[in-house]
Every structure is written in C-alpha cells, then in structure tokens.
UniProtKB/TrEMBL annotation:
Residues 19-267 form the ABC transporter domain. It comes from the Bacteria. Pfam families: ABC_tran (PF00005), BCA_ABC_TP_C (PF12399). GO terms for molecular function: ATP binding; ATP hydrolysis activity. InterPro entries: AAA+_ATPase, ABC_AA/LPS_Transport, ABC_transporter-like_ATP-bd, BCA_ABC_TP_C, P-loop_NTPase. It comes from Kribbella shirazensis. This is Branched-chain amino acid transport system ATP-binding protein. The keyword Nucleotide-binding applies.
Length: 274
C-alpha cells in the first residue's frame, strides 16, 4: 500500500495539488512528444521525471513554461490555467526554471546575474531607475538584500563580485539556481541540475536542492539522468518512455517495477534495490 492509499484509508484529507498536469497531448508534424501525460505536484514535494532521451521530459517543462502549447489536456497552477499563457506571464505567476545548459551572462558578476532574477520585482520605470530616488531607491535596496540572502543560502559569497564566466562549472550551475530563486517562485523547475558535474559538485547541489525543499518549503519538479540523485532526493518519480508515463510512485516502487526496469533502469539496478 502506498503512502497515498494509507492516508486515504485512514481518512486523511489529501493536500490540494500545487500543479495539475492532466491528459496532455503534444504533437509536432505527426510526431507525438507527449501522449496522455498526467501527474500532480503537492505542496513541498520534490517530484522527479525520468526516462531515456526522447522520452518527453523536456517537452513537459516547455509546456509548463509556455514555450509549447499542447493540442489536448489541462495544466493548472493552483487555480490558474497555464495553457495559452506566454512564458513571461507564467513566470509572473510564480514558476521559475533552470536549464540543462547554463544560460547566464558570463561577463556580468554573480550579483548582477542574480539581480536579473528580480526583474519582476521592479515596479518603476527607466527614468525612476536612473534617478534612483524615493520608491526606486527603496525597491533597489530591498532587491539587493534579497539577492544577498540567496548568496548566503547558496554559499556564493567568495565569488559574489566575480564575472560568472571565470567561475568553475559547478558554481555557475549554482548561480543559475540562485537566479531562479531570486524571482521568489512558488514552484521550481530544475532541468538536469547536476548535468556535467563531478561527484563533489553533485553532492553540493543535492544538498542545496534538499535545503530548498525542506527549509524554503518550495515544491520542485526535477528532470535528471543521475539515478542515484533521483532515488535519494525525490518524494515521487514519474517514469517516461516514448512520450507516455509508464509508472508513477515512490523511489522504491519505481525501482522495483518490472516495466520500468525493462524500459530504463536495467536488470542490475533491480537486483541492487531488492
């Protein structure tokens, strides 16, 4: 019996999902990228999406971000319908995303890159910003204080004034994570957060991801190929294969499912988990 089934049998009310992704179908010129994909994300949950290359993981993120518009299905963030909204409008609702490939301004400092994540929190015009008086000044100082808190949270203080292009790869990935946090999101989308990292960098990033979930209480949807990381961090996992979900459950339920083992994990992993 799963944790959800146990709560239902005990009469415990299920939490209202932060995100509902229901029966989504996405096609491109006859190629089906997503075929009836459904899942929910609960408050404070770390929900992972795994699967081979081409399984549809990034397509899910692009639907959530407003980059793609599906032909069928519903996507709701709280009480807001996301389908048809532009990416900037979705970001304003409180969904922030990191990318597999680093998307930073290499010539800007860590602080400046983090400040870019605060652009939704600048309720004044260009002239006010140049004058730096009154409301603009107070708002700028508040935004800088918010960024300094992220610097401390992600342990970036020693690099705060350096151009990010001079930093180690793992630190750059951490800066990108910080820029997403700077927008004060209500839901965080992590696209392969440890891709290309060495073991030490991976362990550092795993610690920060757990801190975001546990200390900030921020729900997370994570796409990742590092199965050790996924099994250690995720509350629930959805396994994708050829655009359709084949299993959703706890790490142990997923790792011991015969169809998942055949499609993705491999027999050796099943033996290790048994």
């Amino acid at each position: 019996m799963t944790a959800t089934e146990m709560r239902q049998s005990e009469g415990v009310q299920e939490p209202t999902p932060v995100l509902s992704f229901e029966d989504v179908v996405l096609t491109f010129a006859g190629v089906t990228a997503l075929n009836g994909v459904s899942f929910t994300v609960d408050p404070g949950e770390l929900f992972a999406v795994i699967g081979p290359n081409g399984a549809g993981k990034t397509s899910i993120f692009n639907v959530l971000s407003g980059v793609y518009r599906p032909q069928r299905g519903t996507v709701r963030f709280g009480d807001q319908d996301l389908i048809g909204r532009r990416p900037h409008a979705i970001a304003r609702l409180g969904i922030a995303r990191t990318f597999q490939n680093i998307e930073l301004f290499s010539n800007l400092t860590v602080i400046d890159n983090l400040m870019l994540g605060r652009h939704h929190h600048h309720p004044y015009g260009v002239l006010a910003a140049f004058a730096w008086l009154g409301k603009a000044r107070r708002n700028e100082l508040a935004n800088r204080n918010a960024v300094e808190e992220i610097v401390d949270f992600l342990e970036l203080a020693q690099w705060r004034r350096l151009p990010v292009g001079l930093l180690p790869y793992g630190v750059q990935k951490r800066v990108e994570l910080g820029r997403a946090l700077a927008s004060e999101p209500k839901l965080l989308l992590l696209d392969e957060p440890v891709a290309g990292m060495n073991l030490e960098e991976t362990e550092d990033m795993a610690r920060f991801i757990l801190d975001i979930r546990d200390e900030l209480g921020l729900p997370i949807v994570m796409v990742e190929h590092d199965m050790g990381l996924v099994m250690d961090l995720a509350d629930r996992i959805m396994v994708m294969d050829f655009g359709r979900p084949i299993r959703t459950g706890t790490p142990n339920e997923v790792a011991t499912d015969p169809e998942v083992v055949r499609a993705y994990l491999g027999e050796e992993h099943q033996v290790e988990r048994s």
